[in-house]
Known about the structure:
alpha/beta; six-stranded parallel sheet; Rossmann fold; 12 strands; six-stranded mixed sheet; 18% strand; 35% helix
Amino acid sequence: MRTLSGKSRLAGVLGWPVSHSRSPRLHGFWLARHGVDGAYMPLAVRPERFEAAVQSLMDLGFAGANVTIPHKEAAFALCDEVSDVARRAGSVNTLVFRDGRIHGTSTDGYGFVENVRQQAPGWQPSDGPAVILGAGGAVRAVAAALLDAGCPRLTLVNRTPARAEAIARDLGGPVSVAATPPLAGAALLANGTSLGMTGEPPLEIDLTPLPATAVVTDMVYVPLETPLLAQARARGLRAVDGLGMLLHQARPGFEAWFGVAPEVDGALRQFVFDDLAPDRGAPQAAQRGA
């Protein structure tokens, strides 16, 4: 076993509920692959106990933790220091404990961008305008990451325009809000809504205006092949599933806690995917979280 600093390293994921989380499975895969003397565990914490739980983890010597629904905003408020990325995202999903202080960042946007790059080789955020459907926390993080990576123009489409307008105001720059998706000329279409998830109605959208070079991606991974992605493939468009977003967003935290920079490859994808097939009852909001 590979031992870091002469002692076992501990991390976990805080959520309520947390039994649905695939993070222990994927981090466990990396721990075994790299022979790290450490453990990553699910930590079910009620919202009213979140702050006390984080302090307890620090007292117990944990290196840090992931944060999933419903704690991401509470984690942001609790941090002693937050990264610029987390500040733009307005939430934190990764905590690192160092010298008695809580450092927080958001890796959701990073995971999104790296997933599309991996599954659609050659794609770059600077390729052209992006259209994002939805206005939840993950959308805010993804929008910020796309802008930071050079996306020239971003349009948010949400059934409640006020939420999308709030994100546009907070992020600033070339961000607009539209009632219908402006697909003509778009280089990327991303679905950040619950439509298409297992148990939810499919997303109804006409992809005909999209250029043949466009990439279509879904932020959910249950099911892995959503109706939107199937429609995109039928048109010959590049389609990117949401599982890789989960896998890539975990990389920065693992490196910070365990001292190893892990890779996302076919073996990891298959290992996590094998745990998805029988699951039809996971909380739907958590199907694109940690």
